[in-house]
Amino acid sequence: MGAQMMKTYDETVAAIHALPRLAKTGGHERILALLHALGDPQHDRYVHVTGTNGKGSTASGIARIFEASGLKVGLYTSPFIMRFNERIMIDHHPIPDADLVAAAAATDAAIGQLRQANPEFAVTEFEYITALAFWYFHEQQVDIAVIEVGIGGDTDSTNVIIPLVSVITSVGLDHAKLLGNTITSVATHKAGIIKPHRPVVTAALPADAMAAVQKRVAETGSDWLVAGRDFEADRAGLDGWGQRFDYRAQTFHLSRVFIPLVGAYQVQNAALAITASRLAAKAMNWPLQPQEILRGLAQNTWPARMEKLSNDPLIVIDGGHNPQGIAAMLSAVKQVFKDERVTLIVGVLGDKDLTTMIAELEASAERLWLVPVPDNPRAEALADYPDAGKLRTFASWQEALSAHLDEFPDEPVVLTGSLYLASAVRQTLLGGKD
C-alpha cells in the first residue's frame, strides 16, 4: 500500500472530533507515549494557566504582553468560539489550515508507529490536540507558549510540562463529576500544575483552596504570589467598553492600565497576567518593559466574555457557564448598564449546576428568558430547567432575540449561560467578520 493521501482540512477536523472524549484512566501515560513518538516537544518554555473561570482571558493577556515585547508566542486554549484553529495560535493568529493538516499528519504517523508495538494504543480527543499543539509550537520555534488547562490540573493532559510559572485564576465548583464537589478537591486538582521550585501566581482564593495551594507549595518549594498580598489592582473604573486600573507590586507600579474588557474580574485577570509575565520574563532573562505590558493588555480582547456584538441594538454575549461565571456576568451587567433593565437570554448545558445558576439569575432584577443551547447533545431540555413553568421560554435563541428586539428595542440584551450558545450567536451575527 502506498503512502496515505493527506487528509483535507475538513477531514482532519472531523477525524479529531471523532476521537473519544474521555479515557478510562486519568493518567498521562498515553499522552507521554505520543509526545515521545513526536520527539518530546513538551520540554520548551511555558506558562501554565488553570482556574474555574478567567483562565482564557488571563492566558491571552500573558501572550499579548510577550507579543508586545517582540517574542514569538504560542497560545493553547479551549473551547473555540468561531473555528477549531483558534485553539492553537501563534502571535494570536490561529494555526493555518494547511499547518493543522500537516501537524495532524505528524501526530497520526506517531500514533501509527506506537500501534506497531501496541495495536490497542489510542488517545482521547484532548490528548491528541494537546500533543499536536506542543509539536506545532516546537516545530515553529516559539519563544514561549501559554498553555490553558482543559479541566482541573494534575491529571489534565497539559500537565506534562515544567512551566516557568503556574497561574491559578479562580477556584469554584464546576465539573463536579471529574474534580469532586468540594472546594478542597477542586483546588487540589488545580494545584497539581505547581511544579518544584517554579513560582505560582494565584488570585485570592477561598480559604479551603488557599489551604490546598499552601500544601502543594510546601511540597514543591515554590514561591507563591497572591493577589491582594503580593500585588494588587486598584482604582479601577470603566472607560468606554473597557476599564482602567493601577497595578502595584512591591517594587513595581503601573498606573492607568487600560484593558478592552468589562467586569471587575477582568481587572483581577489582568493583574495575574502582569505578575505572571514579569516572573516568566525574569526566568528567561528577557527585558520586559512597562510600556510593552501596557501595549499588550490594551490589545487583549477575548471573544464571548461580555463582548459587545452590536451597539444599536445593544447586543452582548457572554460565556458565563457556571455559578461563578453567572455571578461575574451579573456584576458586569450592573457595572456597565447601571439601573437599565436588561434582557438575559440564557441557555445552559445539562451537566452544569443549573439550580444554583437559575436561582442567581432569578435573584437579579433582570428579565430572564430561557432557550436551549443549539446543536449540543449536552444541552438542557427547556422543560427541565428549574422554574421553566414560571419563566418565558423560547424554542431557539433567534426567536428570543427577535422577541426582545420587538418588545424592548431600546434596552440591552445579553445572551449567556454557555460558551456554545455564545459561539452560535457570534457565528450567526458576525459570520466571517472578526
From TrEMBL:
Domain called Mur ligase C-terminal: residue spans: 305-417
Thylakoid among keywords: no
EC number: 6.3.2.17
Coiled-coil portions: none
Keywords: ATP-binding, Ligase, Magnesium, Metal-binding, Nucleotide-binding
InterPro entries on file: Folylpolyglutamate_synth, Folylpolyglutamate_synth_CS, Mur-like_cat_sf, Mur_ligase_C, Mur_ligase_C_dom_sf, Mur_ligase_cen
Nucleotide-binding recorded as keyword: yes
PROSITE patterns on file: FOLYLPOLYGLU_SYNT_2
Domain Mur ligase central: 49-276
Catalytic reaction annotation: (6S)-5,6,7,8-tetrahydrofolyl-(gamma-L-Glu)(n) + L-glutamate + ATP = (6S)-5,6,7,8-tetrahydrofolyl-(gamma-L-Glu)(n+1) + ADP + phosphate + H(+)
Domain of life the protein comes from: Bacteria
Classification via Pfam families: Mur_ligase_C, Mur_ligase_M
An annotated Gene Ontology molecular function: tetrahydrofolylpolyglutamate synthase activity
Cofactors required: Mg(2+)
GO cellular component: cytoplasm
Similarity field: Belongs to the folylpolyglutamate synthase family.
Name of this chain's protein: tetrahydrofolate synthase
Organism of provenance: Lacticaseibacillus camelliae DSM 22697 = JCM 13995
Upper classification of the organism: Bacteria, Bacillati, Bacillota, Bacilli, Lactobacillales
